[in-house]
Amino acid sequence: MKVFDQIEPLMAQxxxxxxxxxxxxxxTMGALHDGHIELIKxxxxxxxxxxCSIFINKIQFNNEEDFIxxxxxxxxxxxxxxxxxxxxxxxxxxxxxxxATYAYKNYSLGNIEYNFEGQHxxxxxxxxxxxxxRLLTIVRPNKLYLGQKDIxxxxxxxxxxxxxxxxxxxxxxxxxxxxxxxGLALSSRNQRLxxxxxxxxxxxxxxxxxxxxxxxxxxxxxxxxxxxQNYIEMIVDQGFQxxxxxxxxxxxxxxxxxxxxxxxxxxxxxxxxxxNIRLIDNIII
Length: 285
Description:
Elements: E1 2-4, H1 7-14, E2 23-28, H2 34-46, E3 49-54, H3 64-69, H4 74-83, E4 88-90, H5 94-97, H6 117-120, H7 124-139, E5 143-147, H8 151-161, E6 171-175, H9 195-201, H10 203-215, H11 221-237, E7 242-250, E8 265-274, E9 277-284
Parallel strand pairs: 1-4, 2-3, 2-5, 3-4, 5-6
Antiparallel strand pairs: 7-8, 8-9
């Protein structure tokens, strides 16, 4: 694997490739786990060249402490990527990605920018879009690999691709969430949980699975709202400090309500905090 800490040499390397070479790209913030590795493996199966980036994007954090405490282990990350034969790794600095001359953009993302994660993390998705726009311009991949755990972010990036000018079509590949043996979605933030916290955190996926069963039989909005509130209480009873949301959404990523009850449910999303660590998860219906 070739490792680059500067953008220009990586771009110069890619200019040598024939346009027939398919490039798969996996953007990350490091602290890699099996979920990231599965993205790399799928990219390897579908492309001639696989690129990974590691960049902790400060402008998508609305909590300074969360940014400072975000786990970092670059040596282990490089080892894992070497083991799965990743071809190229870009580890740019903040100045590489956002130089002093960079003009931050504001993208017209629509309501999805302000709902759920957007409501609880103001400015988060604009930060995500700025860095993804920059990285796509640098790597110019054919396929972009994202994890389903961050499903709202996936939807936002799908929207982003309709707004930016890239000189090739980029296909988004949303890959299944990778979980541990107890159902907990793998996340870099899990590294900050105690063993007790990890054990209690498994209730998130268990609750989502239970909710999926209920939705197949419950047809009234009142019943669905009551069920969601009950699930929130269950999650808190199992050791979580708080639940930001537990919502049933349609394909437009809107909460099922009286006006959208006839639209087939698409997924259930949740975000909850345990040991001061905020976890998100979802399940497709």
